[in-house]
Amino acid sequence: NAGVMQNPRHLVRRRGQEARLRCSPMKGHSHVYWYRQLPEEGLKFMVYLQKENIIDESGMPKERFSAEFPKEGPSILRIQQVVRGDSAAYFCASSQTSTSGHYEQYFGPGTRLTVT
Amino acid sequence: QKEVEQNSGPLSVPEGAIASLNCTYSDRGSQSFFWYRQYSGKSPELIMFIYSNGDKEDGRFTAQLNKASQYVSLLIRDSQPSDSATYLCATEGGGSNYKLTFGKGTLLTVNP
Fold first, then answer.
1. Percent residues over pLDDT 90 in chain A
2. Contact residues on chain B for A91, CB-CB shorter than 8 A
3. How many CB atoms lie within 10 A of CB B60?
4. Do B44 and A103 make contact, defined as CB atoms within 8 angstroms?
5. What are the distances in angstroms from CA A14 to CA A57, A78, A80, A115?
6. How far apart are CA B92 and CA A45, in angstroms?
7. pLDDT tens digits, residue range B45-60?
8. Rounded-to-integer distance, Cα B61 and Cα B88, Å
9. How sure is the predictor about A41, in pLDDT bands with cuts at 50, 70 and 90?
């Protein structure tokens, strides 16, 4: 499978637990982006990472949320002490390095997080 | 605050007709424009991108961009029931040309 991979596809957590969402970019892509889609709302940018670097986390909530993209392994979006309002679909996208200044982003299947 | 506005829809067209989806954006610095298709419960799928004024055609899809009017559209010719989905317009650029700003989408239904 050459596409963007995310797991788990569905995740149920109780309030106060931690959620870890994983993303492996498309082969040949070194840029990873996380987006959140809340019910009845549009997709919102959260964070942009390259290997071992957070480039832009301006869309991340200030508390409880963190992201990483280590040298080896997938990118991880971590949500600590989840609350019901965190219930959403979390999508990862990836792109290759751009020489044109344009970044075509391809999305993974998403992780549907439900907080009970 | 950068904004992307789309026809709220839903848009309903008969099979074989042309579906026209419209989008306006607020950030004059936007450089890249994308159309994604999202089936219910699925992830966005990139179907078209356009960077220069004018038209870009790919099969049954044509994207049109007018930067002066801050307007981008998607035409789907010979619409098929399988085209029934939500279509998301997204822009990128104006200083952070990797960050996509999405519209809320237009739900298209193609009736057999």
1. 85
2. 43-44
3. 14
4. no
5. 26, 15, 11, 5
6. 11
7. 999 999 999 999 999 9
8. 14
9. confident
